Amino acid sequence: MPVYEFRCEACGPFEARHAMTDVPRSRECPACGTTARRVFSVAGLSRANSPRARAIDDAARSAEAPDVVRSVPRQTGGRGAPPAVSRDPRHLKLPRP
Ligand SMILES: [Zn+2]
């Protein structure tokens, strides 16, 4: 059975298999249960859940209301990060500046 692409207004695109003779125009979203419309795309080149499709959807979703950051991202080096301290005893023998 071929794969068809549907798009939920809230959750984004998803794929579903249907017989070619029995393809619905809309279908229940597997995530939230609301009605999702079928999206017409080139056969075999579905973009649902591709990194590019997710990036486009994320950009569109955050255009008016950016995602809220609830904590400071962990820093792994770079400016402002505490210097990494080696626990390797051989490093104690290295010359100091
Ligand atoms: Zn949904």
From TrEMBL:
Residues 1-41 form the Putative regulatory protein FmdB zinc ribbon domain. Residues 57-97 are annotated as: Disordered. It comes from the Bacteria. NCBIfam families: CxxC_CxxC_SSSS (TIGR02605). This is Zinc ribbon domain-containing protein.
